[in-house]
Amino acid sequence: MTEAMIGAAPDVGLELRGVSLHYGGKRSWRRKAEPVRAVDGVDIVLGPGETLGIVGESGSGKSTLGRIAAGIEAPSAGSVRFRGEPYAAIGSAAWRRQRRSVQVVFQNPSQALDPRLSIAAQVREPMDAHGIDAGGGTVEAMLARVGLAGLGGRFPHQLSGGQLQRAVIARALSLSPDVIVCDEAVSALDVSVQAQILNLLQDLQAEFGVAFLFISHDLGVVRHVSHRIAVMRQGQIVETGLAAEVFARPQHPYTRALIAALPAASPAARRQRDARALASLLKA
To answer: Which residues form the ABC transporter domain (predicted)?
Structure first.
């Protein structure tokens, strides 16, 4: 895949080259096991302070790609580099230092938080683990920044789904990361709360300069937050480019199908979109 196809950002913060992760398939008495290609030869780059959206249907490999990008899982082939340096071996001291700079916000915040600890304690916990001074109201200020002022003493069961996700975002930001991998970070929330969290992420990016690898099955959500989009299908990136260009002139049939499935704002908008899709098909 060429650099133009990859849609590289001018400055590389996180870089995945030829990344694959194959799992052993099920073996039967009639045939040997075929490997499951969860991720298969993916190239992506994420520049400082930008948002790269990874979109695809369930089972496309996007969440596995996110875990590799976050250093949670090691690829079976290819390389992952952060700030020009390869990821260290998982579990090593160097890996723990790198993990401070690359954080994750998962889909289900209630599973990501410890029900036995207060929200403030859970925001403070990673700071203590990395030897960061959490004094002087640092935790309270971070909670206030994500809209949870005065709620640090509460426990997870006392907060709504949107508040829980805000707490998880505050915990990730407490380490001042350069990159946050958002894996279906708003898919468990209702539409109005989704919009609030997406706006919060964009505000935090403008304030702190953090880059987001934003993973979602919802192309509409990805379009709202992403500078660039990579479309993933069956473990591979089939199309990538600036968000506006991907939506205006989708090149791959799978991308066109995803866009066609989006609800249109009006019948006129639907007709315009269908006309663009037809023109794209006639050129193909």
So the answer is: 16-259
